[in-house]
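Researcher: Structure prediction, please.
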Amino acid sequence: MQSPQEREKPILTAGEAHNEAMSLPTSTVVESLVGLLGATTVAEIAGVKETRAVQQWASGEREPQRAHVLRFALQLAMMISTVSTRHMAGAWFHGANPHLDDQIPIVLLREQPLESVQVRLMAAVRSFASRDE
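Model: Predicted structure follows.
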């Protein structure tokens, strides 16, 4: 259940979330994703085994190899978190999704080229974000 303060947040459109995710430095993208999903989930999306790499990206010490995937994941997470909690955003990334033929978003982001899954993932997140309207 969300508090009244959480519910008062404006729902980000796909365009607004895109603009926000694309305008941030990579280190801020990673920090924001960690805040929404946790370091372990960010590591899983990026396809790395240790959260140490995520910490290095957040500090600007290193750049992630798949920064474009992390930016897109941030876009999705921001859209979800404006209509729900950050815990629900994490659950969305880890759960089998009927809008994705019961595939798991985190697995698609990690294992497939972004170009082949981004339209389906965006449609699934739009469906989720609009469920309360």
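Model: The CA atoms of residues 12 and 101 lie 25 Å apart.
Researcher: Thanks, that helps.
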